[in-house]
Amino acid sequence: MRALASLVTAYALLTGCAQAADRVAPDRAARPSGTWSPHDARASGTSAHDARPAKDPTTPAQPYRRWGLTAPLPAPPAPPARRPVPRAGGPLPVVDRVPTRDQVVFLTYDDGAEKDPRFVDMVRELRLPVSMFLTDSVVGPGYGHFARLRSVGASIQNHTLDHAALRGLPYAGQRAEICGQQNKLRARFGIRPRLFRPPYGTYDATTLRAAADCGVTAVVLWRAAMEGDGELTYAKGPGRLRPGDIVSVPSGEPAGLSLRERTTRLLREIQGRGLTVGRLEDYL
Length: 284
Prior knowledge:
globular, TIM Barrel, 38% helix, 10 strands
């Protein structure tokens, strides 16, 4: 009898402990493992406000606002099934705009003097399909910056070794400038660019022959340019952006607006015209 009484007493004690545990932490049993509740804050001695997981301040809910825009950029249309500008065959095409009905313009950046890490963030967060035309003597030791840009979607293209005006130079000199940069970019990035922009936009028949011999399939000029002071100028045609326009953004003067600031102004103009940004390489 004494042994039976001891067993009954032990059972009662165990039952009471289990019920007490359920009353103390009912929410732990009811919620999935790894989720947060106010009980966790009380147990750790912090307030519920302090203990709640914080939002990551580096990833805003509306990243376009961070870059000075009032609305997100519309997504570009799907790439055309056939490129409106031929890639090869006959003389190289020389283009300052693309014949397309798509409501897109194309952003191209020259030289490679500015290496602002925040511009990389801007391209990544806004998903800008930009084309970087690089000059080796201007980029100098800064190719790592453009590797980061390439990793977030920018394309790398050819703008010669030394930014020399090519028109009138002999074939050997022009070929050295163009093929030399092709080789540099292949060594740096494992690519041989298809697109080439002659410095200052000047070229001749020898330029086209040398570029073709270096593996280039199109020479890219521009119809509009965003200058260092933020003014949008036009090489020809009406003074407004139109679908298919290629826009050049050269490296700015030290006292001018930064690449980010000029890009923001340009994007506002693009939005105001009901356009968006397309990938140039999809059309050439």
